[in-house]
Amino acid sequence: MSSSLALVLLMLTFHNASAELFTALADMEELLETESVLIANLDNYIRVQEDKLNQLRRRSAEYQREHTEAAKDVGTYLSNPVNAFLLTKRLTTDWREVENLMSYDVGSEFLENVTNYRDVLKFPSDEDLNGAAVALMRLQDTYKLDTASVARGELNGIQYSTEMTAGDCFELGRQTYLNGDYYHTVLWMREAMDRLSHEVNRTTTKADVLEYLAFSTFKQGNVHTALLMTNELLELVPDHERAVGNKVYYEKELEKEAMQKALRGDDGSVDVPVDTTTVSS
Fold first, then answer.
1. H-type alpha helices, 94-144
2. What is the CATH code for 126-264?
3. I want to staple 196 with a disulfide (CB 3.0 to 4.6 A). Which of 47, 166, 228, 281 is the partner?
4. What is the pLDDT of residues 21-47, one digit of tens each?
């Protein structure tokens, strides 16, 4: 599969996902332009923040140098009128300057820039994010792409894009979860879990992945595995309210299976497992 063909297939899949999705190449180029502006704004913020920290470091080093000198012989140091004056100055006018520098919010100007950018640049919406996830799932299903390969940025063994992080896989799984697509949720949450185990700088948490993975596994009919995952989640977060309730429900369902009773639908009881669709990530 050539790179141009891969792009065409991807764009066609996007087009079928939603009429309002960013489908045209020109639209996607506008998003790259938006990202470029945001990167420049972020770099400027980091530079100003580093300047502020460097000023504070210099002040701290000056204070420490004088303090160390005074500690060698406190009496001799303080008997010198110049030293006495400078110590008093450091703790009055100089320290007020330090406090002003510490309280100066260097980020407000750059946050205001981002707000203004929204009036002139194109930003995708949450609906666009969900549509992009749906499009990627359609591409995966249509061409029977392996989840791990897609996460590596590979199509038919050829590297086309950057590898996805555990956090990327988690968000993709969360988007499919919001659509009630528990099959793909399980695939991508498992991939997120696998990648998380190899990450040094972790991009999501095991507890977050388990929460979605356990419930989606239950929705696919595997109550036993869902219970095992929920127990694992409770080991990490013992007071996880939804997991506590779901554990009780799963155990009751397994008891019913053991008694060879037919599983029934939702009867409206309060102990039905909680759908985390309404839970903010």
1. 95-103, 107-117, 126-142
2. 1.25.40.10
3. 166
4. 445 577 788 899 999 999 999 999 999
